[in-house]
Amino acid sequence: MSLQYHHISIKTADIFQAIAFYEALGFTVTERFTAGITLACWMHGAGTHLELMQVPSPKHHPDPFSDELYVGYYHLSFYVDNLDVFLQDLVNKLGKVQLLLPPREQTIGDRCYQVAFIADTDGLPIELMELVS
After folding, report:
1. Is residue 63 part of a domain?
2. Closest to 121 measured CA to CA, from 72, 69, 55
């Protein structure tokens, strides 16, 4: 028996804003469809697949970034070639970016990274990592 990764699914309050955000990250819509009564799409980018599903009546969600006691999925993480350039490019494309944690160095094992956290249109934390050494 084998296991192979397929996709990440994110529920969103506004699928059109979410699509624009993930397109700015480099994803492209590959399929648009309905799931029950809601709009949905599949996107491809960063070597993975992403499913967005619009929630007709969104409710408040937990804050996985600021709540130290939160248990569950925490964030998506992507490598970038140049963190500063990538963040500026996002601002140029989107007008503004919600920065949860400004760029800072982080050592993990024998490697050093420049790391920042941003939020998508629904507040989902996204980590951007640049390998420094």
Report:
1. no
2. 55
What integer pLDDT is reported at residue 72 of this predicted model? 83
Identify whether the C-beta of residue 84 lies closer than 8 Å to the C-beta of residue 115.
Answer: no
Last residue of a domain, one of 56, 77, 96: 56
Question: Tokens 């790391």 map to which residue?
Answer: 115
How many Å apart are CA 65 and CA 127, to the nearest integer?
A: 11
For 126: left if phi > 0, alpha if psi spans -120 to 50, otherwise beta; the answer is beta
Q: How many domains does the chain have?
A: 2
Can you read off the two tokens belonging to residue 17? 């804003």
Residue 60 C-beta-side C-alpha neighbours within 13 Å: 2
- To which H or E segment does residue 80 belong? none
pLDDT of 60 > 80? The answer is no
Nearest-10 Cα torsion for 94, 125, 128, 74: -160
Give the confidence band of 56 by pLDDT, cuts at 50, 70, 90: confident
